[in-house]
UniProtKB/TrEMBL annotation:
<dbReference type="GO" id="GO:0061630">
    <property type="term" value="F:ubiquitin protein ligase activity"/>
</dbReference>
<feature type="domain" description="NHR">
    <location>
        <begin position="23"/>
        <end position="244"/>
    </location>
</feature>
<dbReference type="InterPro" id="IPR043136">
    <property type="entry name" value="B30.2/SPRY_sf"/>
</dbReference>
<dbReference type="GO" id="GO:0035556">
    <property type="term" value="P:intracellular signal transduction"/>
</dbReference>
<dbReference type="InterPro" id="IPR006573">
    <property type="entry name" value="NHR_dom"/>
</dbReference>
<dbReference type="GO" id="GO:0016567">
    <property type="term" value="P:protein ubiquitination"/>
</dbReference>
<dbReference type="InterPro" id="IPR037962">
    <property type="entry name" value="Neuralized"/>
</dbReference>
<comment type="pathway">
    <text>Protein modification; protein ubiquitination.</text>
</comment>
<dbReference type="Pfam" id="PF07177">
    <property type="entry name" value="Neuralized"/>
</dbReference>
<feature type="domain" description="SOCS box">
    <location>
        <begin position="250"/>
        <end position="285"/>
    </location>
</feature>
<feature type="region of interest" description="Disordered">
    <location>
        <begin position="1"/>
        <end position="23"/>
    </location>
</feature>
<dbReference type="InterPro" id="IPR036036">
    <property type="entry name" value="SOCS_box-like_dom_sf"/>
</dbReference>
<protein>
    <submittedName>
        <fullName>Neuralized E3 ubiquitin protein ligase 2</fullName>
    </submittedName>
</protein>
<dbReference type="InterPro" id="IPR001496">
    <property type="entry name" value="SOCS_box"/>
</dbReference>
<dbReference type="Pfam" id="PF07525">
    <property type="entry name" value="SOCS_box"/>
</dbReference>
Amino acid sequence: MAAPSDPVGLGAPRGPALSEPPPTRFHRVHGANIRVDSTGTRATRVESFAHGLCFSSEPLAPGQLFLVEIEEKELGWCGHLRLGLTALDPASLAAVPEFSLPDLASLGHTWVFAITRHHNRVPQEGHPETEAAVPSRPPALMVEPYLCIEQFRIPRDRLVGRSRPGLYSHLLDQLYELNVLPPTARRSRLGVLFCPRPDGTADMHIVINGEDMGPSAKGLPAAQPLYAVVDVFASTKSVRLVQLEYGLPSLQTLCRLVIQRSVVHRLAIDGLHLPKGLKDFCKYE
């Protein structure tokens, strides 16, 4: 798979232009209670609280973010989504483990974490942990359109969760942007990627609603294929993949951004003299 890169460094380090990676999909190998839709982009646990393991269909490229949005929650269970990377080829597994932790991790070459903001956030060197634990408002898209993680730059456009359009969505959207909601709240967006190091290893980073949690694992084998792991566990019932544009933004995306910046809130888009299809695209994407 080609690494996500382009001349201006969208989603990748500066360097010669390379082809954009194909859209992310879930692997055909998954837990017994998982059902993947026909597009390969939505995974739902249909019963119980376990056997919810999913993998990326292909190994990730360096700097490629495997991003999911939590679509459905299920009351009555204790625990949430788990996320990480594995050097194990899902197709080579004799049987898909019941849990990512500890079952898959015990097979080795796997780095998976339960998603909780305080446990996943890793303070940067030279910064006290207390400072790292205080959420701050991400810069506006016009001011800083990229999330910078080590040598990679990832477009912020689709990294942050958004509420369903409704009476209070303008308030809820701000909570997603501030990243003060529980990280596994419905419609939160969570992602994982790896960044190679000069010594041949790689750091794994987890991203929660557009905020990099820091290197949650180090020393991963950068030369080996690394697959994303998503454990649709317990109270997390269904997730969908969110696609990112690593190359130059499409004309459709640029038009949407201009329209969104021209209104106080996305619900005001209904009052614009635009085709319904374009209004829906601007409100829901």
